[in-house]
Amino acid sequence: MDPLKDVARIIRSKNAGPTKLTLDVLFDDEAGFRRGVAALDASEVARAFGRDIGAVTVTAYLPAFALKIVMDRPQVAGAPGDRDIYGAQQHGPLLDVMV
Question: Which domains are delineated in the chain?
Answer without folding.
Answer: 4-72 (3.30.70.260)
